[in-house]
Amino acid sequence: MTGKMRIGINGFGRMGRLALRAGFGHPDLEFVHINEINGGAKTAAHLLEFDSVHGRWTKG
Asked: How large is the average pLDDT for residues 40-51?
């Protein structure tokens, strides 16, 4: 494969946040866009950082 695979996440609910966590830092992936209609960037950042099952996310 040449270059990174560019990824957009449509919906930043439970599954969208888990997808970002799973792929974050992978050398062949580049997250280029997150589409979410509910809440804003601050809300999304908070929900990504604090997860009731997986705990606090400190990467990024």
From this structure: 92
Distance of alpha carbon 55 from alpha carbon 4, whole angstroms: 29
Summarize the confidence of residues 15-19 as an average pLDDT: 95
For the range 10-15, what are the long-range contacts, defined as Cβ-Cβ under 8 Å and sequence gap of 24 or more? 10/35, 11/35, 11/36, 12/36, 12/44, 12/47, 12/48
Please say if the pLDDT value at position 21 is more than 90.
Answer: yes
Domain limits of the chain?
5-55
Residue 17's SS3 state is helix
- Cα dihedral sign, 24-25-27-32: positive
Separation of CA 41 from chain center = 12
pLDDT > 80? residue 36: yes
